[in-house]
Each structure stands twice: as structure tokens, then as C-alpha cells.
Design a protein that fits this description.
The chain has 231 residues and is mainly α. It has helices at 11-27, 40-49, 55-67, 73-77, 81-87, 94-111, 114-118, 122-131, 137-147, 157-165, 176-186, 192-208. Helix content is 58%, strand content 0%. Helix 10 (157-165) packs across helix 12.
């Protein structure tokens, strides 16, 4: 029987793959801010600046750093605390985020260079990022995935919201690692471009349609399978 075939895809794999296919149809042509050509250091800094704010605010801070010719390790390092805080002010919590960027620069210095840091094996890189002050699992995985081009599924509030509303996967409040293992198993192969693309699709969908408040269910192609859909 098909259900006894160990090579058959699991129900979770099929369901997640079907959801991703719908997201691809809806959002595959939309712009995503990080691509294979985006500067890795800019990605890492952006992953820190976007904590607890919108990407629009983080991008404003990145633009100010870029205009000051400071969007590289040496450029950030020579800024005074006041200069750094002022440049990243649009990202919010700028004093705390300036400390996080200093901690990240310290990690780079201990690693020999930014390139040497990214060249570490994925598990080692993730562990060192998590040991740096102010970098949590979501930020670390974003750096591993988008900057180092290594497999790491980023689990954010958008991911939990979308799959939680669809009743797919763990409980929305389940630990980060449980969600990550579920998604990695449902999208097997350790293919970092696929995982990066899927995460981008989830974020685009959650920002534009599956919003925390007043979701636009009428425009969503997943509404027929979504128990939380409203008219």
C-alpha cells in the first residue's frame, strides 16, 4: 500500500509543498530585498537592524550607513558610538543596536575577517553568531542563509502566523527549533536557494495579505484551505 512505502513523501511534505506552490504563483515575481548578488556584510547588518522593526526602517538606516561609506567592517569600526547611533537611528532602539553591531564587529575581529567567519562550517558559524551579544536564532539563521549561503531555515513571526492559521506544523508558540526541524523535514535536501526563496515568499505573503490585523483573505489563493480565513 502507498502508506507503507518508506520512500513516499510524508503528509507534511506534500502539504507544505502545495502551500509553497500557491505562494510561488502569488508572489514569485515580487521583489525581495536580498538576492545572491546582495553584499553579504550588508545582509548581516540588515539582519541585526531589522530586529523589532520593519524592513523599511532598517533599510533607511542601511542607506545612511551606505551614504557615510560605513557599510563595511572597517567603516563601521572607525565610527564613534555617537556617529554609529545617529546613522542607525531610523531602525529604532539605536543605542542597543549599536551595541549589537559592536559585538558583531568583535566577532569578526576574533575570526580574522568577515570572509573567514562566513567560511566556517554552518553549525560552527551559527554557534558563534548565537554567542555574540544581541544575536538570536532568527538573526543568526538569516545570516547563515542569506549572507553565508548555507542551509538554515529562518523561522519568524510571519512563518508561525501563516502556517498556524493553516493548521499546518507545530503550535504557533512552539519552540524555534521545533518549527525549524518541521520545515527542514518538509522541504528536504538542504538546498539553501530553495529555503531562502520559500522564506521570502512567506514574508511577502504575510506582509501583504496574511497580516496580523485585518488580513486580506479575499485576495488569498489559500483561503479555501485556511480555517482562519474571513470573508
Amino acid at each position: 500500500m502507498p502508506g507503507n512505502d518508506p520512500a513516499a513523501p510524508s503528509a507534511d511534505t506534500v502539504e507544505v509543498a502545495e502551500i509553497v506552490a500557491v505562494l510561488e504563483r502569488m508572489h514569485g515575481a515580487e521583489h525581495w530585498h536580498w538576492t545572491e548578488r546582495t553584499d553579504p556584510f550588508e545582509i548581516a547588518v540588515g539582519a541585526i537592524l531589522v530586529q523589532r522593526t520593519t524592513w523599511t526602517n532598517a533599510e533607511r538606516a542601511l542607506d545612511r550607513l551606505r551614504a557615510a561609506a560605513a557599510l563595511h567592517p572597517g567603516g563601521l569600526a572607525i565610527l564613534s558610538d555617537d556617529e554609529l547611533e545617529e546613522l542607525i537611528r531610523p531602525s529604532g532602539q539605536y543605542r542597543t543596536k549599536a551595541r549589537k553591531l559592536r559585538a558583531f564587529l568583535d566577532l569578526i575581529a576574533r575570526s580574522g575577517s568577515f570572509e573567514a567567519l562566513l567560511a566556517l562550517p554552518p553549525a560552527t558559524l551559527r554557534g558563534r553568531l548565537l554567542a555574540a551579544w544581541g544575536i538570536g536564532e532568527e538573526t543568526a539563521d538569516a545570516i547563515v542563509l542569506y549572507a553565508a549561503h548555507r542551509p538554515a531555515f529562518v523561522v519568524d513571526a510571519y512563518t508561525r502566523r501563516l502556517f498556524g492559521r493553516l493548521n499546518v506544523g507545530p503550535d504557533p508558540g512552539a519552540p524555534y527549533g521545533l518549527w525549524q526541524r518541521f520545515l527542514a523535514a518538509a522541504l528536504p535536501g538542504g538546498d539553501w536557494p530553495l529555503w531562502a526563496h520559500v522564506h521570502a515568499l512567506i514574508v511577502l505573503h504575510a506582509k501583504h495579505l496574511c497580516r496580523a490585523r485585518r488580513p486580506r483573505c479575499g485576495e488569498c489563493d489559500l483561503r479555501e484551505r485556511c480555517p482562519a480565513a474571513t470573508q
